[in-house]
Write a structure and sequence with these properties.
The protein has helices at residues 12-16, 32-43, 53-56, 60-70, 84-97, 108-112, 114-117, 132-145, 236-248, 266-279, 296-304, 319-325, 331-344, 361-374, 391-398, 427-442, 445-453, 458-472, and strands at residues 2-7, 47-52, 74-78, 102-106, 125-127, 156-160, 163-166, 205-208, 211-212, 232-233, 254-257, 284-289, 307-315, 347-354, 378-383. With 474 residues, it is α/β, with parallel strands linked by helices. It has 2 domains: 2-166, Rossmann fold, CATH 3.40.50.280; 195-384 and 420-472, pyruvate-formate lyase- activating enzyme (Alpha-Beta Horseshoe), CATH 3.80.30. Helix 10 runs parallel beside helix 11. It is globular and about 65 Å long.
């Protein structure tokens, strides 16, 4: 069958809204979810294309023209909550142009709210959870039986006789080594992607997923049901065979592991460090993890193996807020982990969430002051967004809040509309605080001196320059 997989149009204006200066620090990376789907479907002998509109800047009109020329049997669209409106438009135009083509939606949005998503009749089928095995079975079923007896396919949602039917959930893939490497040959070259300037050490930059699942926390602001709460690991050899392909075939010089918690299994993390040394790859790397899963010795081993940055979900430096967010970390964990990184020479990208129902102006101020004291390389003060599927979305919905995600307002737009105002603040005071938080953090002599002293390359200079222009232009 002919299958087109689509990362729908989502422009820089969609990302940053009215805060145009933030365009300098936007993050456009390869859609590995689509690349994994393409890889398994190619194995089954299907004809595949991937349209990564976000990388190429493809408009809806241009995408529709491309799809009409290719005339696929199935169009698969990936959708997060921010891109949902674009996904609806993409599917609607595709249906008007290719009425006999099936449109399937996957990604975080349909996983979180399947029935709500399928209320839009431009989508024929939704895929819930991990997509690879479901996509293979679904395509084979359509090839043999069309739209009849779809209830036999696990892990999907569809309309039948005026009702929305959700089938039995498919078990998560236990042996991730069974999956082929992402079909990066169907994506634009790595050089075409635009990772955030401060998120990479060198270019081209790539991403790798060495495990799936998020264990040890049930953060109320996050929905991880699409990947599950049981961590499944690829073997170290399998991961490094992909990294060698990235270096030797695609020219990657820097990478980031997008595992939810890279250091959850410290023994495995150390084995990864040893493999970096063994293979002598010319590549620098970074990872995401939690502050209560690292030690100084582990961080030192990571530094010696080429790790230059660790991204921590710090979230808050207020003990009560952390407890209510169900992060399963403490302020002490956060402070100690950052201290160890500073000692061994690893930069820290700290993610904070501000403006939840548990925040008071005093709690937000306490976190900002403590974050300034920690003085990490990057501090993201993320405005709370009640994403579908998370516990806080459910709680606020029960309190009467209503959110229309078909009319997305950029949450990176510090001057634009916000979705929730925390207790004790007005919308305007919240916006003002968010803008001032960035300026107070980044436009400090101590921060600027530290970053200037760590410059190692022309790329570092560009990153600093773009970052300061973005913050200064707020």
């Amino acid at each position: 069958m002919k299958i087109a997989l689509v990362n729908p149009p989502f422009t820089l204006d969609d990302l940053v809204g009215t805060t145009k200066s933030m365009k300098r620090v936007m993050n456009v990376i390869q859609p590995l979810g689509l690349a994994y789907l393409a890889a398994v479907l190619e194995q089954d002998g299907h004809d595949l294309v991937i349209e990564d509109c976000q990388c190429l800047g493809t408009s809806h009109a241009e995408l529709t023209r491309k799809l009409a020329e290719y005339s696929p049997d199935i169009i698969g669209i990936t959708s997060t909550t921010p891109t949902f409106a674009s996904s609806i438009r993409t599917a609607t135009l595709a249906k008007e142009t290719l009425p006999n083509t099936l449109v399937v939606i996957g990604g975080a949005q349909v996983c979180a709210v399947p029935e709500q998503t399928m209320s839009f009749k431009c989508f024929d089928i939704g895929v819930i959870g991990e997509g690879e095995r479901t996509a293979q079975e679904l395509v084979t079923h359509i090839q043999n039986d069309g739209m009849e007896h779809l209830d036999r396919v696990k892990g999907i949602v569809f309309r039948h006789n005026g009702s929305i039917v959700e089938t039995e959930r498919r078990p998560f893939i236990s042996n991730l080594d069974e999956l082929p490497f992402p079909a990066r040959h169907l994506l634009p070259p790595l050089e075409r992607y635009q990772p955030t300037p401060a998120s990479h050490r060198r270019l081209p930059h790539a991403t790798v997923i060495g495990s799936r699942g998020c264990a040890g926390a049930r953060c109320v602001f996050c929905d991880r049901r699409g990947q599950g709460f049981t961590v499944r690991y690829r073997s170290v050899e399998n991961v490094f065979n992909e990294i060698e392909e990235l270096v030797n075939v695609y020219g990657a010089r820097d990478l980031k592991f997008f595992d939810d918690t890279f250091t959850l299994n410290q023994k495995r993390a150390l084995a990864m460090c040893e493999e970096f040394k063994k293979r002598r790859l010319d590549i620098t790397w970074a990872c995401c993890t939690r502050t209560n899963t690292v030690s100084r010795d582990l961080l030192k081993a990571m530094k010696d193996a080429g790790c230059w940055e660790v991204e921590f979900g710090v979230e808050s430096l207020d003990e009560e807020v952390l407890r209510k967010l169900q992060k399963m970390t403490t302020v002490s964990d956060n402070v100690q982990a950052v201290k160890w990184c500073h000692e061994v020479g690893i930069k820290v990208r700290a993610q904070y969430i501000i403006g939840t129902p548990f925040h008071t102006p005093e709690a937000m101020e306490e976190t900002l002051k403590a974050a300034i004291k920690l003085n990490t390389h990057i501090a993201h003060f993320n405005k709370f967004t009640p994403y579908p599927g998370c516990e806080l979305y459910r709680m606020l919905s029960e309190q009467g809040y209503h959110y229309d995600f078909t009319n997305w307002h950029s949450q990176l737009d510090l001057k634009g509309e916000i979705m929730y105002t925390p207790p004790g603040m007005t919308e305007e005071s919240y916006k003002k605080w968010a803008i001032e938080a960035n300026r107070r953090y980044y436009l400090r002599a101590k921060y600027i001196a530290k970053e200037l002293s760590s410059v190692r390359s022309l790329e570092d200079v560009r990153s600093l320059w773009n970052g300061f222009l973005a913050i200064g232009g707020l």
